[in-house]
Specification:
By secondary structure, the protein is an alpha+beta fold. The protein is built from four helices and six strands; from the N terminus they run ββααβββαβα. The protein has a six-stranded antiparallel β-sheet.
Length: about 160
């Protein structure tokens, strides 16, 4: 099995009461990220990924069953305006709680030239609790393994 992602600083913070203290980074292999950015997402895959993330969010108790929430994944559009497999933001209920890929780094990722780094990093914003940390890690990992499976043609959401 090859490893194409990892979490960095995924641990309980030293100062648990400090806002944003539960933040962590998600690292993804650059070639997988670039392939996701250049591949359009099919509607059934978009629906399935959003549904799984919604179930995860509700399962961790961050939203009630009848509560409307923002779609967890924000996918990047290509030059034609179509959604790609690359999600630039992973959103959960809370005080602007999410993981994100810096928008100013997207153009560099689109380029064919190799980078000095063979990975990209998703950064945290306002991760204030262990339940937010676990939920974000779960929805990010669901996206990453789903994208990997789609790109490698090992799995398809139907």
């Amino acid at each position: 099995m090859e490893f194409f992602y990892r979490f960095y600083n995924f641990c309980p913070p030293l100062e648990r009461e400090k806002l944003g203290a539960w933040g962590f980074s998600a690292i993804l292999e650059r070639d997988i990220a670039r392939a996701a950015l250049l591949t359009e997402i099919e509607n059934h895959d978009w629906i399935h990924l959003q549904h799984i993330a919604d179930r995860i969010i509700r399962g961790y108790g961050l939203a009630k069953e009848d509560e409307n929430i923002k779609p967890p994944y924000e996918f990047v559009r290509n030059e034609e305006g179509n959604l790609t497999l690359f999600a630039e933001s992973f959103n959960i209920p809370g005080n602007a709680c999410f993981l994100f890929y810096p928008p100013d780094s997207l153009e560099e990722l689109r380029k064919k030239e190799k980078s000095n780094l063979n990975w990209i990093e998703f950064n945290p914003h306002n991760v204030d609790s262990s339940s937010q940390q676990l939920t974000l890690a779960s929805i990010w990992e669901t996206w990453a393994t789903g994208v990997y499976g789609i790109l490698k043609r090992e799995v398809c959401f139907r």
